[in-house]
Design brief:
Number of helices: 21
Helix content: 55-70%
Shape: elongated
Radius of gyration: 28 Å
Structural class: mainly alpha
Strand content: under 5%
Distance between the termini: 70 Å
Number of strands: 4
Order of helices and strands: EHEHHHEHEHHHHHHHHHHHHHHHH
Oligomer: single chain
């Protein structure tokens, strides 16, 4: 199809060099071609169906006219006759020429569309030239989108018909891209691989250097985020269509959907889904378990996603959940009481914090459970706010013991506690001890890739203040 006597361009004069044999795109009628506005990053092992269905789905989702969307794809736009002739003569294209052509194409189209298929083990991410295309796009500030073929999208959508497979489908996709390592990408010509990685990080000369390179790590993160956003978008669209038809997903699915959407920062999308679910439950008379799940998801999102600006709304929703438990004669979950305690502490309502803690003690005693570290942490913060430093440290130490007993000492929640302990020591004038806690907390946050956590933001400012005093 692309070269040889069966190729569409066989026997046709190339309009670019005047020689026999032209590219596939130059063999088409002009009504089917035009200046490309998007460049496809793909791999030769993909089938025509994989490419075509992916592009069709992308156009559909983006509201693009397929007759007016022109895509640059190397297999179709490069003259494969010339490439094959050069290869037969042992004259490979020099790296610098390839680089110049690729970078120029990325800049002129202004939009790269990556096709990482199959979704459970993307081939293109294993190929160095695909990595280069993504690096060039991100380096030049070019828009990058990710699209998957129809079969991948339909498989993911179908998985949301039951709780178990929906969770596993998300975990599988998320893990694939979370652990993406472009430093393992391969090349037909090893020199190309070395040249491309030297562009990304000139200081990385060995595989160990690539593993430790902050430039490679940053690119891994950026590339991974794109398919994760696609995954969240597919899920949101699919679930919304089900809700619009009056269908409520099985218990647990809405929680996973909310977690997924908030992970990619789509708080508005999560809010829309949850409000729609609440409306359907109200219209159809949904059971209390579903109502509790929806209200709790909304409250959690307001608590953790809006840095305190929607605490009042979150507390109102938590209170509704607690009322449902009270009416049913159920003990409120410790997580519910802890989250209400967090908000009450942030609002400066110490009496409410103490009351919630007393209720949590009763729940723990009746259930034979140990108090969770989160509750102890924020009761301690509330005492710190009141200037009762000894009482605050007493609760902090209990919280620390609770986290360690559960094997949670390397989590962001424990890092937040360490930061709070550092703040208390700072206010007591014990700056050397405070600095030790702060550094430990910061290392924990960063090792957990939790630098977006609200506790990390607090910690950075505290670190700067303490360092200034010690300098």
């Amino acid at each position: 199809m692309l070269f040889g006597h069966l190729a569409r361009g066989f026997g046709m004069t190339c309009p670019r060099d005047g020689l026999p044999g032209c590219s596939y795109v130059d063999s088409l009628d002009c009504q089917h071609t035009g200046p490309a506005t998007v460049m496809l990053s793909w791999f030769w092992q993909y089938t025509a169906r994989t490419v075509v269905t992916a592009l069709a789905r992308w156009c559909e989702r983006e509201g693009r006219d397929t007759y007016q969307t022109f895509v640059w794809q190397c297999a179709l736009c490069n003259n494969q006759f010339r490439i094959q002739e050069n290869m037969a003569q042992g004259v490979p294209e020099p790296f610098d020429v390839f680089r110049e052509v690729f970078e120029m194409r990325v800049r002129t189209t202004g939009h790269v569309l990556a096709l990482p298929s199959p979704s459970d083990k993307p081939i293109c991410i294993d190929r160095i030239w695909c990595v280069f295309e993504l690096w060039a796009a991100l380096t030049h500030g070019v828009k990058v989108d990710v699209v998957f073929p129809e079969v991948d999208e339909l498989d993911l959508s179908a998985a949301f018909l039951d709780t178990g497979s929906s969770v596993e489908a998300m975990k599988k996709l998320w893990t694939v891209f979370k652990h993406l390592k472009i430093q393992d990408a391969k090349a037909t010509v090893e020199a190309d691989r070395a040249n491309i990685f030297s562009l990304i990080d000139p200081e990385a000369n060995t595989q160990d250097d690539l593993e430790q390179s902050p430039h490679i790590a940053a690119l891994n993160l950026l590339v991974a985020q794109k398919p994760q956003v696609w995954c969240a978008d597919v899920v949101r669209t699919h679930v919304k269509s089900h809700l619009d038809s009056g269908y409520i997903p099985l218990l647990g699915v809405l929680r996973k959907i909310t977690d997924l959407l908030t992970l990619v920062g789509d708080y508005a999308g999560a809010d829309t889904i949850l409000r729609r679910a609440l409306h359907v439950l109200e219209v159809n008379g949904g059971d209390n378990e579903h109502v509790i799940e929806v209200l709790s998801c909304m409250a959690d999102m307001y608590l953790w996603g809006y840095m305190g600006s929607r605490d009042a709304e979150a507390l109102e929703l938590y209170s509704k959940v607690k009322d449902i438990h009270d009416i049913q004669g159920d003990a409120p979950p410790l997580t519910l009481l802890t989250n209400m305690c967090i908000i009450s502490q942030r609002q400066g309502h110490h009496a409410d914090v103490v009351q919630l803690f007393s209720l949590a003690e009763i729940v723990c005693r009746n259930a034979g459970k140990r108090m969770n570290g989160g509750m102890l942490h924020f009761v301690g913060r509330s005492y710190h706010d009141k200037g009762l430093y000894s009482k605050a440290m007493e609760f902090f130490l209990q919280a620390d013991a609770s986290f360690r007993a559960r094997g949670l000492e390397f989590t962001p929640a424990h890092a937040w506690l360490l930061g709070s302990m550092g703040a208390l020591l700072h206010d007591q004038g014990r700056h050397d001890e405070a600095c030790k806690n702060i550094l430990q907390a910061r290392a924990c946050f960063e090792a957990s890739a939790a630098t977006g956590h609200p506790g990390y933001t607090e910690l950075v400012k505290l670190h700067a203040d303490t360092a200034l005093i010690l300098s």
